[in-house]
Amino acid sequence: MKKYFILLLIPLCVFWSCKKTSPAEDLSHDHSDLQHQLEDTTVVQEPGEQTHDTETHSHGEEELHLSPAIQKEWGIELGTVKIENLSSQISLPGIIALNKNRTAHISSFVSGQISSLFVDLGKKVRSGQKLMVIHSPDFGQTKADFLEAWAKLNLSRQEYDRAKHLFEEKAIEEKEYLRRKTEYEKDSTTYGALGSKLHSYGITHEEIDALIEKCIMMEDKKFKCEIAEPYLSLLSPMAGTVIFRDAILGDHVGPDKTLLTLSDLGTLWAELDAYEKDIPFLSEESQVVIQSSLYPEKNFPGKITYIHDVIDKNLRTVKVRVEVENTENLLKPNMFIQGLIENKESKRILLSVPEDVIQTLNGKKVVFVIEEEDIFIARQVELGRQIGNRRIITRGLIIGDIVVTKGAFSLKSELTKETFGHSHVH
After folding, report:
1. Lowest mean pLDDT among 34-43, 69-78, 128-137, 391-400
2. Apex 166 CA angle, 164 and 169, nearest 5
């Protein structure tokens, strides 16, 4: 004998979608021969078929009678069972790494001593920001040599221009003209080489122009401009965070020592390991989600940027690089993660429901189905694999069944109460 709980209030019904799917829907898209196809064998029952489940619900399954008002109060929402295109996911282990395209190692261009230091670990810097100053006699000497070459070039240019004019007037011999031309070209080459050397130290054209202007001002004040300051400023080549520091005031440094490492942590790499059998189902167009056990409820969308061309001969795996946004700074380099990659080749048409539709009642998995108007039945179901936030149903439901999609826990709680006969909720 069925138990009846009658809850009477004002009529209302909230439907997600109550239009039944046509029994003639095409089920022909099953790619059963693919290596990564879903292993669940879905029994898709047409409306009206007699099954063990439909007979069971007419022989003792517990029912709830809910008025539309109570359905609204409990937040009950309904949806129609239908078949959908679902694809499996390939789960790959991996590790978070720095984005090497957005990482920079900072070292001194010249030998010298750290005289000033402006950053520390964890500090965010902007592009062009001064990081430290190196006191370098070698740098000072290069600047002095450049200024001397600049002065000699000005003088030889004047002499060459004068010789050219005199040669055209046949006032000097060709030999003298060629000597002055050769001297000018030599000084020009020396000046260019020393300018390039300054550029290799990170000095810009604007800074070189400023150096020359300063030299001119010193000459106007009867000072020798060849006396140059030996201080080299190291500037940040990019915006990022200081993640490594091996620099202390007074340290003697050279070009072979890494002093700082900067990296933009807003975008990281997830380096995943894919087995050989997974390779045919991977492409740079595949959708990827990165997950961490530290944040079980959070997904980090990513994009495959590179699938390595060489398989590891020992592990028999291939590296898959995924670029993942890290705007909240939750992911950290060297963190273990899982990558879920959509296997588009394994799409199948399957009967499924959202995961939170399924409840456990008396040790059995059930879904609440509306049998008649305002009458809800806890129908036992058999489950297949979970894909994303949906669960495949292999037995217990048919196309067109109207199920509770929200508020099922309230129905379960009401059924678990030790109440018999009729019950009225006021």
Report:
1. 34-43
2. 110
pLDDT for 125 equals 96
Taking 90 as the threshold, does the pLDDT of residue 27 lie above it? Answer: no
Bridge partner residues of 300 (DSSP): 290
Q: Helix, strand, or coil here: 9?
A: coil
pTM above 0.70, yes or no: no
Min mean pLDDT across 107-116, 257-266, 312-321, 353-362 is at 353-362
Tokens representing residue 198 in the block: 């300054």
Burial class from Cβ neighbours inside 10 Å (0-12, 13-18, 19+) for residue 402 reads buried
The DSSP letter of residue 74 is T
Instruction: Kindly report the backbone phi and psi dihedral angles of residue 240, in degrees, each rounded to the nearest multiple of 5, phi listed first.
Output: 175, -165
Mean per-residue pLDDT for 35-61? 39
Is pLDDT above 50 for 422? no
- Count of residues in the chain: 426
Nearest-5° angle of CA 299, CA 301, CA 303? 150
Q: Which residue has the tokens 């009729």?
A: 422
Q: Tell which residue, 180, 157, 158, 177, has the closest CA to residue 166.
A: 177
Query: Which amino acid, one-letter code, is at 307?
Result: I
Report residue 338: phi and psi, to 5°: -120, 140
Number of H helices and E strands in the chain, helices first, is 6, 26
Which pLDDT score is estimated for 159? 92
Map out the domains of the chain with their CATH numbers: 6-83+350-415 (2.40.420.20), 91-98+265-342 (2.40.30.170), 107-256 (no CATH)
* 403 CA to centre of own chain: 37
Token digits for 183?
């001297």
Task: State the average pLDDT for the chain.
Answer: 80
Give the distance, in angstroms, between the CA of residue 27 and the centroid of all CA atoms in the same chain: 36
CA distance 358 to 393: 10
φ, ψ dihedrals at 100, nearest 5°: -70, -20
Q: What is the DSSP string of 166-185?
A: HHHTT-S-HHHHHHHHHHHH
- Give, for 105, the enclosing helix (H) or strand (E): strand 103-106
Q: What SS3 state is found at 68?
A: helix
Cα–Cα distance measured from residue 340 to residue 287, given in angstroms and rounded to the nearest whole number: 8
Distance in angstroms (rounded) separating the CA atoms of residues 146 and 323: 45
**DSSP string for 247-314:** --TT-EE-TTS--EEEE-TTEEEEEEEEEGGGGGG--TTSEEEEE-TTSTT--EEEEEEEE-SS--TT
For 92, the 3-state DSSP assignment is strand
pLDDT at 85: 60
